[in-house]
Amino acid sequence: MKENKASWTAEISAIFRAVESIRPPKEQVCCDRYAKDFIRLKYRRLLNIPILARFALWMGIERRFCGTTAVHVARVRFIDDKLKESIKKGIDQVVILGAGYDTRAYRFKGLENKKVFELDHPATQKLKKEKVRRIFGKLPANTVYVPINFEQTTIDSALSNHGYERGAKTLFIWEGVTYYLTIEAIDEVLGFVAGSCGKGSSIVFDYLDLLVAKDRSEVALAKKALRYQAQKGEPFIFFMSENEAVPFLLQRGFSHVKSVSHQDLKKMYFKGKSSDRKLCSFWNIAHAIV
To answer: What does the pLDDT read at residue 220?
Structure first.
């Protein structure tokens, strides 16, 4: 990421959620009523004509990277479900790593009196706070915005002066981030999570498994994605196979590790009229208990 420029992937993710949220309710995989407010006006206007919005998304992303839209909205839904479960089980606080234009602090009931820490690159976070003030009139009282560059600053030092409660039951959400980081930065994050929060805490994150590519078309798509991200200035760095995910997290102090593949997400969320939607095979999600 360029030092003084907000992440373009934050807006792309918001566009995915916004377009999904204008589908008929029975066809929606996820619903984010605030996502539209985080995207540029020229894109928001397209949402008034759903078929045009879906076509524009296909032209911009899907025709080049088939299955990207569906896997993105599926990961949002999976993480949303984990957050709902955590709220029901009595979570004390939530930490969103690389928050981008994540709206969970604003749209989930049960978080009104819980601290939600949003950690992100200063440039992206500055723009997000401007958008949040425009939407709500002010910054929500329950949300703590913590600027951080994961490659230069530790989470421990970033959170230490912002009211993070050590030993509290915490859910860490790490969406759309790991593949941009070095293994050293990832280990620092996981070490902090495993060592700082209370019993019953957990982490949920997505990761790239380029080894899943078996046939020629999948290999070509993977190479195209790598080139595209590098050209955009946000290259993919970290990869992990699904077989590696469980031992990787067990070795770092976690238990009850579950890795969810694109096939699993397809079975969980794509039914009825959505059953024919294709999911990109490279994205998996892991959930683990501290």
So the answer is: 76
